[in-house]
Design a protein that fits this description.
This protein is α/β, with parallel strands linked by helices. The chain is built from 8 helices and 8 strands, in the order ββααβαβαβαβαββαα. Helices cover about 35% and strands about 20% of the residues. β1 and β2 form a beta hairpin. It is globular, with a radius of gyration of 15 Å. The relative contact order is 0.23.
Length: about 190
């Protein structure tokens, strides 16, 4: 299943990251840090439920997809995100699709699709591009995963690695996920 371009770096848990150079270094610096709660408020025109807050995502794995309905890979990406929402619903997965500032009216077809019972699938408008700025998103689609501890675990990952990333975060408890940041920071002076 493909959501994004080929990756350049692989973590020990088999998740491939996109990007290189200073951008990848900036994305790496965002990982294993709390996802900024202010990011949710930069999204508007939510479908699938009310606007999310940090409290709504607390203890849940979250898949974020930056999306443009007009982008050539847009349809495939959102269909894949819907598949993951269904596949990992039992694990409490929340899927958030943040639409590009342009062309949101063309997303109407996606917004009208009902969300099956038990799934948490939201589409929202990133009207000013602020959500993307906070994630350092450089193209659509880009994929990010937040763990149960509320940390951005994976920043801008390859589409082929999304299932693996979700397997990892859905299998963990909140405490296990929180401990990963502590383990990674030992000896780094953090």
């Amino acid at each position: 299943t493909t959501l994004a371009a080929p990756a350049l770096a692989q973590s020990a848990d088999g998740v491939l990251r996109e990007g290189e150079g200073s951008r990848r270094a900036e994305l790496n610096a965002l990982e294993l840090k709390p996802f900024p709660s202010s990011a949710w408020s930069s999204l508007t025109e939510w479908s699938g439920g009310k606007a999310l807050t940090q409290a709504d995502t607390d203890g849940h794995p979250v898949l974020i997809l930056t999306w443009s309905s007009w982008h050539p890979t847009g349809s495939k990406a959102i269909n894949t995100a819907r598949k993951f929402a269904a596949q990992y619903a039992k694990d409490g997965l929340i899927v958030v699709v943040a639409h590009h500032p342009e062309g949101f009216a063309d997303a109407a077809t996606e917004l009208k699709k009902p969300v099956p019972e038990g799934q948490k699938f939201y589409v929202a408008l990133d009207a000013k591009g602020e959500f993307r700025k906070q994630l350092l998103s450089d193209s659509d689609p880009d994929v990010y995963v937040i763990d149960r501890a509320g940390q951005l675990r994976y920043g801008d990952i390859a589409g082929d690695s999304v299932d693996r990333a979700l397997q990892v975060v859905c299998a963990e408890t909140r405490d296990t996920a929180a401990g990963i940041a502590l383990d990674c920071n030992v000896g780094l002076g953090v």
